[in-house]
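User: For a teaching handout, I'd like to show students what a predicted protein-ligand complex looks like in token form. I'll give you the sequence and the SMILES for zinc ion. Please answer with just the structure.
Assistant: Understood, here is the input followed by the structure.
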Amino acid sequence: MTRLLRKAELHCHLEGAVPPALALAQARRYGVATDAFMKDGAYVWHDFTSFLGAYDAVSGLFRSEDDYALLTETYLDDLAAAGAIYSELFISPDHAEAVGVGADAYVAGIGRGIEAVRARSGIECRMVVVGLRHCGPERVEWAARYAAAARNPLMTGFNMAGEERMGAVADFARAFDIARDAGLGITIHAGELSGASSVRDALDLIRPTRIGHGVRAVEDPGLLARLADEGVVLEVCPGSNVALGVFPDFPAHPLRRLQAAGVKVTLNSDDPPFFKTSLEREYEIASRIMGFSDEELDTMTRTAIEAAFVDEETRARLLARL
Ligand SMILES: Nc1ncnc2[nH]cnc12
Ligand SMILES: [Zn+2]
């Protein structure tokens, strides 16, 4: 039973965390038809491309600063109730611009949500700005420049998500340089839809302290040794990997092999309602199906806090709560 364990999450996309009931309420408010991406109260998609389509459609239901404050509060209230003391939310200023909210109002709404939930539950949260790979290097650089210029104490990291099979990692190195030079923490999606070579490219060209997913590093023992040696932390999302068919089922998932190879691993929900999961369920799966003990789960939570994009005083405070 993992319910009582303290938890931390490094990898959750805010627009991927919209509960279907909230999406329906927003759709009703704005007079949007939901049949193309929802059925019987659940999101509908069949592969990564259609997942991204459904994700974009749901993002389009949030159109104001208040909408984003509501979404942030809804997710963080649930996460705190499940025992989480820390959360990093991946945010996409690109989505905000696409729906006409504007990145500043978007970030202001999310910031309000973070502060409201922290005041009532104590959960700490930071924003990690995400550039979308399928939008190309120029848009990703725009996102990096936006994050670098913001100087917002709640916005502490930079990431790239989206269609991993598009473009070469090298094309995005400049965006990450901009973010790193501004003092932001660096993580990148790799080794999810593409194989071990994408993880190698990320390490060589981006020099992240963390990798989103990274699970297909398991295809290359030399790479596993390198990840362990360099202490790079993997943001592992088993429910997402199984839902997207990266691995056929949980017993086949490599979380145990990664951990046994000495790689630092953490548990995350990615886009929870799209993958019928939650952070709590990820801990339960790791416990019941993968056989991790409570001590091993606590180690993953500690790893997440140690790798969090926070100042050292906040990190010490969070570690003291474990
Ligand atoms: N699992 C995932 N991989 C890449 N980009 C994403 N954006 C939202 N979820 C994602
Ligand atoms: Zn992700």
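For the handout, you might add this sentence: Residues 13, 16, 55, 161-162, 189, 192, 240, 270-271 surround adenine (ligand 1) (CB under 6 Å).
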